[in-house]
Write a structure and sequence with these properties.
299 residues, mainly alpha, de novo design (two linked rop proteins), three-stranded antiparallel β-sheet, two-stranded antiparallel ribbon, 8 helices, 5 strands, disordered N terminus, disordered C terminus, transmembrane, gap junction channel activity, Gap junction protein, cell junction
């Protein structure tokens, strides 16, 4: 079911409070500005694109909000190791969490929504070009519908889908490489300096964090699948249209090449012949046809 942009606006205008690793709020982040920019994409998107946009804002952004405020807020404060050596806990935390999940997901959301701005920019460029053409040619338009996915806009839309799917795949790969999978162990071993020996470190709320991380991974995979479906739909529709144009051109060319000349007798003069007739009967039919032609000429 495709959710409308109005519902997305109500959910996103509440804003997001991104929490730093030290447990302090960095700043209030209002997603309504980004949502207002991307809401116009719905007018130029297919059904797959609308579902993708709804999934990004309703599922991924809202889960990002909940994870940032409730689960990942104690990321560094509640990370403990069984040692009192100064600096050991910080070094181990930096080794286990090279980059915060929150910041990685925030970058991912920014990157996957930026390609949609390419489509909006291209449509705005077309509209400005059409207005200029209309002013110079006294009311005639250059584009019947500037938002119609034809020509360069079709390619821009297709490239934006490739970028969105590519960014999602890239961030999933980065997350997998950094954390060696999509799992958060309850216990981690650390033997880096200045730790006196191999120490045990514990992550707070590992089960909750794992659930949220898996949810974000699954939602990313679904968004990638929707992008691929939309690409297949666009390319298939384009191929079908080109084949139809080619077929129509071939029919028109065939009709022009086999057009009857003015010297050919009208089809009403031809008589249907029974294929079972013998040669003698066929010759009689020919004679009868010649006789009718002579009578017509005499008249």
């Amino acid at each position: 079911m495709v959710l409308h942009c109005e519902r997305q606006s109500m959910l996103l205008q509440k804003g997001v409070c991104v929490v730093s690793s030290g447990g302090e709020a960095v700043r209030g982040m209002n997603w309504s500005g980004l949502e207002s920019l991307l809401s116009g994409v719905n007018k130029y998107s297919t059904a797959f694109g609308r579902i993708w946009l709804s999934m990004v804002f309703v599922f991924r952004v809202m889960v990002f909000v909940v994870a940032a405020q409730k689960v990942w807020g104690d990321e560094s404060k509640d990370f403990v190791c069984n040692t009192r050596q100064p600096g050991c806990t910080n070094v181990c935390y930096n080794h286990i969490f090279p980059i915060s999940h929150i910041r990685l997901w925030a970058l991912q959301l920014i990157f996957i929504t930026c390609p949609s701005l390419m489509v909006i920019a291209h449509v705005r460029f077309r509209e400005g070009k059409d207005q200029k053409y209309e002013a110079e040619h006294h009311g005639s338009h250059l584009y019947a519908n500037p938002g119609k996915k034809r020509g360069g806009l079709w390619w821009t839309y297709l490239v934006s889908l490739i970028f969105k799917a590519g960014f999602d795949v890239s961030f999933l790969y980065i997350l997998f490489r950094i954390y060696h999978g999509y799992d958060l162990p309850r216990l981690s071993k650390c033997s880096l300096d200045p730790c006196p020996n191999t120490v045990d470190c514990f992550i707070s709320r590992p089960t909750e964090k794992k659930i949220f991380m898996l949810f974000m991974v699954v939602s990313s995979v679904v968004c990638i699948f929707m992008c691929i479906c939309e690409m297949v739909y666009l390319i298939g529709k384009r191929i079908k249209k080109l084949l139809k144009i080619r077929h129509d051109n071939q029919r028109l060319l065939f009709a022009e090449q086999h057009e009857l000349t003015t010297f050919a007798p009208p089809r009403s003069q031809y008589k249907k012949t029974d294929p079972t007739l013998g040669d003698s009967q066929l010759s009689l039919n020919r004679k009868e046809k010649i006789r009718e032609g002579c009578t017509t000429t005499t008249l």
